[in-house]
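Journal club prep, shared notes

We agreed each person brings one worked example of a sequence with its structure written out as tokens. Mine is Chalcone isomerase domain-containing protein. I'm keeping it raw so we can talk through how to read the token line rather than staring at a rendered picture. Sequence first:
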Amino acid sequence: MRALAALVLVLWAGAACADWRGDVQAAKLVGEGDFSVLGFQLYRAQMWSERVPVDYDERFALHIVYARGVTRERLADTGISEIKRLASAPIPADTLERWRANMLRAFVDVGPGDQLRAVYLPEKGVRFYAGDHLSSEVDDPAFARAFFGIWLDPSTRAPTLRKHLLGMAAD
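Then the structure, token by token:
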């Protein structure tokens, strides 16, 4: 029994400390750019993918390095606000609340230099990493597409950043 408990602990610890690169092993940097509001840089984002152009049929990763402090609640609320804005049809309130709870489990309060990553898993969902440690996995393809749409949807609030992330802008 003690050996079984030790094995479970080792397996759990390995999963909890899994590096995001294991999810996109052959990925290369597609593009990167800064997101600023009123002249203040909030973060630098990078898109990593095994395939260019990036699409929802293959795994890809969004890597964000924060320049300013933001609470996880603010990150989740802003995410939900953008998901609602980008939706082609109203999203039920219970779905939005579930998605917000998913984000709160995945996110941590961030400060300058902190990193969050999200790995898109086609037809499955998304894995979130705080630093290099797995913080949450959400098995919900609709949530995953809506979440990544914040950056990838053509109607994003940051069209220049979108172009940079997708490798479509040359600077």
